């Protein structure tokens, strides 16, 4: 892992870790929401940014993690609950990936969206059938501070994983798949397995985040935890920030979750309209997101000399 | 008798009702250079797609160094030593020239390190191709002619035993075509590769190869030494239409 990235991650984590002692409860809950989107957007970009397989499935993984948490939090130790959410989401993504990762572009995006809806309805049905209820009230939950630090650990783990993957052969394979999948395969990349593994790894972080956030809400039902807004906001953050960069999605997660909290309450429609416009502009004119603006400048310099 | 580097037996590829390749055989030994020619739509590229595992033949068998790879995915072919280029260069536009070559070294090339020692790293490959000074240039900024060379470099990075070249000379000037032909001969002579070369510029190809296969409407029309094939009336007819065989001096 590059030393500069490590230092930046450690610094950011230290600041975030101090916040519960420095800020009031409202601001700490804002910080929690920021950290959640850091985890979601960074892990999304790790797979979808590199491979250009745009997934709208984040809410499925998040919701599954939340339900795993709801089912087990009273009985199992907290780390096991989080690991359970991550594993179930990863296993589900792995199986779904085997079925749908041969489809590209719009087809893949639409199917992952459908997958989220399917999961939501399946959980609703299962809960009605076997638990006799749709929502669940979580009575035995860890303290807010525990939840905050759990989400912080998940966010840091997602960022570290993104850095490590980026520097690895696995990350190179993901980039190759994004550039030209068939070409990468003829150069020896086992594309199917790389895609399934990348999709599952990315889903693990969303599942863990869902498991941690579920207890924070104390009452959960499928509509709340399989909320498509979570998946869309994740994609938007990553794409506007720069799907191929590390810092882009990270900074965008901070900015947008803060904006969301302030603007959504005061100007709900204006906020959603602005988000939509921003996404369109990013897709049309900034394929590498806001991060592309400064990276482009950094890249053109030395390359031009080499010519 | 030695095991052929690549053997294809009775390859049939169908797309819906259309039979693009209809029972074609090909055997190639190490250190040989074979050409494939044929009019447009003869099934040349589809045949290559079958030889590199990108399409699964409806019937027929494929052997690489004696191992049966029929129905295996493309990366298994790459790891077994089959490397290829594409008609329209498929290079990684966002990477630099050196990064693109390193990609092949990292995947199939890494697995094949023990089998093939030649051209061990990216600088050696770029030197071989005459691309050394472009190493740090982004791929999107190099000329189409150099992108074609780079694609050969990406293929060589997999440390192949067999190199499949699909119209690598298309769109090049006469001087460039001749230099590509020299490069292809060096792949055989210096690297010991079995090379199969598809080309539209028939004259250059016939000059360079020791054996040529003619495809027409998915079938093998002729196979043999270039001089014999060039005189074959069936071949001339396929290229120029009825009556051309008589008209030619």
Indicate the topology.
The complex is a heterodimer of chains A (307) and B (249).
Chain A (H helix, E strand, L loop, with lengths): L2 H20 L2 H27 L6 H15 L5 H23 L4 H27 L4 E2 L6 H23 L2 H18 L4 H27 L1 E2 L1 H4 L2 H14 L5 H20 L1 H18 L3 H18 L1
Antiparallel strand pairs in A: 1-2
Chain B lengths: L5 E10 L2 E11 L4 E5 L6 H8 L7 E6 L2 E2 L5 H7 L1 E3 L12 H10 L1 H4 L10 H8 L14 H13 L5 E5 L7 H16 L4 E5 L3 H7 L2 E6 L2 E6 L1 H6 L1 H8 L3 H4 L2
Parallel strand pairs in B: 3-8, 3-9, 6-7, 7-8
Antiparallel strand pairs in B: 1-2, 1-4, 4-5, 9-10
Give an overview in words.
The complex is a heterodimer of chains A (307) and B (249). Chain A has 307 residues and is mainly α. Chain A has one domain. Chain A contains 13 helices and two strands. Chain A has a two-stranded antiparallel sheet. Chain A starts with a helix and ends with a helix. The C terminus of chain A is likely disordered. Chain B is an alpha/beta fold and 249 residues long. Chain B has a single domain, classed as Rossmann fold (3-Layer(aba) Sandwich). Chain B has a six-stranded mixed beta sheet, sandwiched between helices. Chain B has a four-stranded antiparallel beta sheet with strand order 2-1-4-5, with helices on one face. In chain B, helix 3 packs across helix 5. The radius of gyration of chain B is 18 Å and the shape is globular. Chains A and B meet through helix 7 and helix 13 of A and helix 2, helix 3 and helix 4 of B.
The fraction of residues in strands of chain B falls at 15-25%
What does the largest sheet of chain B look like?
6 strands, mixed
Q: Within the CATH hierarchy, at the fold level, what is the topology of chain B? A: Rossmann fold
Radius of gyration of chain B (Å): 18 Å
Helical residue percent of chain A?
over 70%
Mean pLDDT of chain A: 88
- Largest interface in this structure: A-B, 22 and 35 residues
Count of the separate structural domains of chain B = 1
Q: What's the tally of helices of chain A?
A: 13
Major β-sheet annotation of chain A: 2 strands, antiparallel
Low-confidence stretches of chain B: 243-249
């Amino acid at each position: 892992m590059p030393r500069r990235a490590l230092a930046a991650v450690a610094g950011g984590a230290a600041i975030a870790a101090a916040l519960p002692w420095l800020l009031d409860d409202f601001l700490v809950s804002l910080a929690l929401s920021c950290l959640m989107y850091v985890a979601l957007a960074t892990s999304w970009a790790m797979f979808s940014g590199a491979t250009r397989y745009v997934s709208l499935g984040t809410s499925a993984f998040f919701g599954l993690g939340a339900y795993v948490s709801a089912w087990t939090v009273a009985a199992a130790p907290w780390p096991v609950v989080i690991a359970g959410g991550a594993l179930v989401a990863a296993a589900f993504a792995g199986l779904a990936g085997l079925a749908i990762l041969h489809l590209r572009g719009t087809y893949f995006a639409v199917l992952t969206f459908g997958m989220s809806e399917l999961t939501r309805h399946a959980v609703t049905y299962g809960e009605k059938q076997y638990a006799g209820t749709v929502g669940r009230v979580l009575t035995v939950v860890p303290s807010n501070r525990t939840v905050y630090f759990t989400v912080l650990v998940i966010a840091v783990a997602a960022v570290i994983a993104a850095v490590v993957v980026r520097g690895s052969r696995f990350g190179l394979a993901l980039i190759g798949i994004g550039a030209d999948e068939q070409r990468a395969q003829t150069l020896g990349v086992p594309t199917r397995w790389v895609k399934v593994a990348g999709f599952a790894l990315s889903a693990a972080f969303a599942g863990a985040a869902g498991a941690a956030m579920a207890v924070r809400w104390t009452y959960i039902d499928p509509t709340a935890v399989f909320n498509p807004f979570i998946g869309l906001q994740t994609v938007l953050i990553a794409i506007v920030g720069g799907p191929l960069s590390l810092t882009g999605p990270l900074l965008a997660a901070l900015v947008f979750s803060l904006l969301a909290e302030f603007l959504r309450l005061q100007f709900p429609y204006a906020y959603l309209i602005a988000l939509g416009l921003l996404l369109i502009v990013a897709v049309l004119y900034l394929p590498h997101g806001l991060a592309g603006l400064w990276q482009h400048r950094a890249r053109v310099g030395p390359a031009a000399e080499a010519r | 008798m030695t095991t052929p580097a690549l053997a294809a037996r009775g390859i049939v590829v169908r797309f819906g009702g259309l039979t693009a390749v209809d029972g074609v055989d090909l055997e190639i030994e190490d250190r040989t250079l074979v050409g494939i020619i044929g009019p447009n739509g003869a099934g040349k590229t589809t045949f290559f797609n079958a030889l590199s595992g990108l399409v699964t033949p409806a019937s027929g068998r494929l052997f690489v160094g004696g191992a049966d790879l029929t129905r295996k995915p493309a990366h298994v072919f790459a790891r077994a030593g089959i490397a290829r280029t594409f008609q329209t260069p498929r290079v990684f536009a966002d990477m630099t020239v050196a990064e693109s070559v390193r990609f092949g070294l990292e995947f199939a090339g890494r697995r094949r390190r023990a089998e093939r020692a030649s051209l061990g790293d990216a600088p050696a490959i770029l030197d071989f191709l005459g691309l050394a000074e472009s190493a740090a240039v982004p791929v999107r900024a190099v000329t189409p002619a150099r992108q074609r060379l780079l694609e050969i470099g990406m293929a060589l990075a997999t440390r192949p035993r067999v190199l499949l070249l699909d119209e690598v000379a298309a769109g090049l000037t006469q001087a460039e075509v001749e230099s590509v032909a020299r490069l292809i001969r060096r792949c055989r002579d210096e690297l010991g590769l079995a090379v199969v070369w598809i080309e539209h510029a028939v004259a250059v190809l016939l000059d360079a190869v020791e054996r040529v296969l003619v495809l027409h409407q998915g079938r093998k029309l002729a196979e043999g030494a270039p001089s014999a094939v060039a005189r074959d009336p069936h071949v001339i007819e396929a290229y120029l239409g009825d009556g051309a065989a008589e008209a030619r001096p």
